[in-house]
Amino acid sequence: MKKIILIVSAIGLFSCNNEKNKYDASGTFETTETIVSAEANGIIKQLNLEEGQTLQAGQHIGYIDSVQLGLRKKQLEAQIKSVLSKSPDIAAQTSSFNKQEAVIQSQLNTQLHEKQRIENLVKADAATPKQLDDIKGVVDALQKQLEVIHSQDIAQTSQLTTQTRGLTGDIVPLKVEIEQLNDQISKCNIINQVNGTVLAKYAGANEMASTGKPLYKIADLSILVLRAYISGNQLSSVKINQPVNVLVDDANKKYKEYAGTIEWISNKAEFTPKTIQTKDERANLVYAVKIRVKNDGYLKIGMYADVKL
Q: Vertex 259, ends 258 and 264: CA angle to 5°?
């Protein structure tokens, strides 16, 4: 009877050992962790997040004090208005010259008509040549006056245009500075950029923030990556996008099975990490692989798992 018990126990122990060795590689779960830092200097007025909280990309979670930036922007806008107020009214100046030209042109048209009438009278011996010469003198004077006004109009317009361009050039750097301030003000809003779970919180409301200061750490836990190691003998039996079975210990000391997909295979060998066990001896060279596994909520970063190829 004792012999039978011993045999059964041995078989059971052998079965347990066999069960535990039904894997081809081992590793730990990891994911891409993102540390979100402040992009502005100032007091954190609001930061609505807690460790373990799930955030969506584009979600507004707080802001940094931007009062001084806003005041500086108003100051620059006032400077621009002051500079523009010195701009000449080219349209008004042009309109004034146009009115003068219109008056002279009207007088010239009248005198040209009178000249034509006197020429006809001279031909009919009803007017003297002196009268014709006098009217020609008036017409010439009006034409010269019209040319002078037109030249003055062109010169004045050119001068005012140059002056306006100079003032416009003066406000260009002010506008660029306003754009810089708008960018800085926008960065005072703390916008989460990654879908994921908050792993750690480094700052809170009413604390001083500076550019580059870490605020929180976040990672997408919906998909975890198992970094495992395979021997050189196994390398020929794996490929990218190959489905594999991932085994995780559950509370009943059994394996919980997950579907995984190989997404990366190292192109160089390395010595097995001390914390990893493979089918071959630890001293042998192995290759790292990354296996994507959909997380049902039970998988955690740093958790050990085995892989069945």
A: 120
